[in-house]
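In the laboratory, one determines a bound structure by crystallizing the protein with its ligand and collecting diffraction data. In a computational setting the workflow is compressed into a single prediction: the sequence and the ligand go in, and a structural description comes out. We illustrate the idea with NDP.
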Amino acid sequence: MNYYIITGASRGIGQALTRKLIVPGNTLFAVSRTLNEDLIELASSLNVPLFYFEADLSIREEAENFIKSVFTKIKLAEFDRIALINNAGMLEPVSPIKSIDFALAEKHLHLNLLTPMILSSVFLTETAGLDIPKVILNISSGASFNAYSGWSVYCSSKAGLDMFTQVAGLEQNAELQPTKVFALAPGIIETGMQELIRTTDESLFPERDKFIRLYEEGKLSNPEDIAYIILNTIFNYDIVTGSVVTIDQLKEIMYTLGFPKM
Ligand code: NDP
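The predicted complex, in structure-token form:
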């Protein structure tokens, strides 16, 4: 049995990942604030176990309760491989630093940075010593290494996620049965988050028009393609523990495995 834990499964990249994982042989744990009824129905029609949790992962207790509940349902003796995909994320607050809503910034930092740490910590503890493929994938962003005016909170949370990934990777490299931990900058993908970027007031986000242009020129990837690339490479040995990779690097790995060019 393959186990996958996916955060932010209701929409966007998380929904695409979860939908593709609804195949026999997988057991899925999905979480978001709102249930995705289509995914639940699809899993039920194909007899694939999907445990869908409704939780607000910007609240520490809810994140802790979620991941602890997941491990009460996993039969450790039975699994062939396991992955935690820390995908849930938010962009807001978008604003110059002098006028940031810090209550929102606090929720953001919990969701984008602290929650992946909490989930990873419990995952690593629960799976320690198991000699099977184990992966933690943190969905990061190009904004972790490119500064954008108005995105101080988002750029910082994603830069923090990258550094967390590197430190967790160092620690795992010292383990006898390490978990592969890596972060991914997935490119620019047509999801609700991009819609939000395009409709943000330009006075808050001066680079808005660049994203509108990319959209109008058809340069955005679709979430299904990104999910396809991730799921075909996530357990691949060429991905170095502790690394931060781009979607193009994952594509290259896929091509070396013989997949057709996209
Ligand atoms: P979406 O906004 O489309 O989806 C975000 C997902 O996160 C939803 O399922 C949402 O579910 C969930 N979520 C948001 N807040 C919470 C919360 N408080 N508790 C639990 N779940 C929550 O975003 P994308 O699919 O675009 O983004 C997914 C990841 O990819 C994010 O980490 C993002 O930063 C990253 N990324 C996206 C890019 C893009 O171009 N789209 C580019 C680079 C990185 P619900 O609202 O039901 O809770």
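The first helix runs from residue 12 to 21. Keep in mind that any predicted model is a hypothesis to be tested, not a measurement.
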